[in-house]
Amino acid sequence: MSEGKTFPAWAWVGCGCLGAILAIAFFVFAAGFWAVQKARQFGEEIADPDERAKKALAVLGASELPDGYHPVIAFSVPMLLDLSVLSDLPPDESGRPPEIGERGFVYVSYPAFGQNQRELRDFFEGRSDDFDELGRHRLDLDLEERIANGRIAREEDDVLWVSHRGAIDTDDVGKSQEGLLALLLFDCGDSRNRIGIWLGPDPDPDATPAELELSGTVSDPEAIESFLSPIRPCR
C-alpha cells in the first residue's frame, strides 16, 4: 500500500501569498472603482446648482438653506468627512458655484476619536483662544480678538458658539473678507466633531469688542439662532 503524498510546505505558503495578493488586488480595484464613481458624482454635483443644493441640504441635515444663501460646494466621504460651504452670492449664468461673498457659512463634520474634547470645549466656552482644529481639513482661520460667546439649547443638540474678528482661508473657495466669524460647535452627544463657521461684515472695525454693536451681525445670539434654525446636523 502506497503512502499518500503530502502537500509541500512551500506550496501552502505560495497559495497563501497568492491569495493575499489577489485580495489586495481586488481591494485596490474596488477602491479605485469607488473613487472614480465618487469623482464623477462629485463633478456632476458641482456643475449642477440643484444637485449642489441637494447635497448641501443632506450634509447639513437641513430642511432648506438659510434665506439668501447658495451652495458653493458640498461633499461626503462616508464615516470620515462631511463638508459644505454656503455663500450669499448666487451662481453665475452657467450655474458655476460662487465664491464666498460678504457673508458665508462653512460646515465640517469628522470623527473625534483620539482627540481632546475638553480642549475643544474650552475654546468654544471662552476659556481658551487656541484653535488649530480645522487646519488639517484645509480650513485656515486667522483669528483676532474675541468678541462674545454663548450657548443655544435646541431639542436635538446644543450649539456652543464663540465669535472673533478675523478671516477664513480654504483651498476650495479662497479667502474671505476680514470681518466677524462665529465659530459653532454642534454637540450631538456622539463621537463626531461638527463645527460651523458663519462669517459676515464687521459693522465698525475700529470699535473695541465692548463698543461694538452686535445686533444683526454674526455675533448676535438671536441672529445665530435664526440662521441655524433650518440646519440640524444631529438629526
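The record above closes out task 2.4. Task 2.5 opens with a second protein, given below.
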Amino acid sequence: MTMPTQQPVKAIDPADDPLRVGRLIKIARYIEDHADEPLTLATLADIAGLSPSRLQRVFKSAFGVSPKAYQDAARLGRFKHSLKNGKGVTDAIFESGFGSTSRVYGEATRTMGMPPTTYRKGGAGEVITYACRHTAFGLLAMAATDKGVCFAQFGDDQASLIDELRAEFPGAELSASPVDDSPELDAWIEAMNQHLSAGAPRPELPVDMRGNAFQLKVWQFLTGTREGDTLSYTQLADRIGQPKAVRAVASACARNRVGVLVPCHRVLRGDGSLGGYRWGLERKQALIELERTRKLGS
C-alpha cells in the first residue's frame, strides 16, 4: 500500500466559548435533525443570529469542522446505519440526503476511508498494513490504510492483537509490514514510543477515524484536548453539545480504535476516578501521570 504523507491531525480548541454554549449547540442540533435537507450557511447564520463568516469561524473552533462538514458527517452516520440495516446503496444514499451517488462516494471515502459498498462488507477488498512493536507501554499494534492510522492498540501478545484487528475489519486484507516494506509505519510506532518513553511530543500522524457521526464528534474533540488536562464524561458531553448523552460519550471512548492518538485516556468519571479504559486502567493512570508531569515541567 502507499502510506499517506504525514499531516497534522485536526485539532479542536476545547476552550470554552460562550457562543458555543447557546447558539452553537442549537445549530449543531438543528443540523443533526435536518441532516437530510439542503442547509446553507446563510440559513444557519440566521438561526444563530450571527453573520455567516462569524458562524463559520466559531463553529469550526468549537467542533473542529465546518457546518457543512458537520452535516456531511451526520448524513454519513444515517447512510452507514442504513447500509448495516440491509438497505441498498442507492436507497441509502437518497434517504440520507446526499442527493447523488457522486456526493456520497466523495464524502464517504474521506470519512470512512473506503467506498460505501466496501464499508458494508466490513472493508472487503481493502488492504490494511500493520506492524507489532514493543514500546514503553507494552506491545503496540498499529495498522494503516492509504489515508492514515486506523488502529493503534496495546496488548499482551501479537496473536490477540491481530485477532482484534481482524475483528474490527473482517472483510479487509491484512498485510504484515516488515521494516523494509513499510518504513513509515515503523517510524510512526517509534515516534509513539519516543513520546511515551522519552518525553517527545505526541506524534501528529494522519488518522483514519471510522465511526458514526456522534463517535467522530467525540474523537475529534478529544484530539484537541491539551496534554495534561482531563475532563469528565459529563463535561465532554456538554462540550460537544450533547449534555444528556453521557453514556453515549463513554461508549464512544470505549469504541476508540486508535489509542493515544485519540486520547480517550484523558476522560474520567465525575468523581475523578479513572472509569474504564480499553487497554487497562494501569496504562490509563500511567498516561495521565506522564502527561501531568510533562505539563508541570513545561
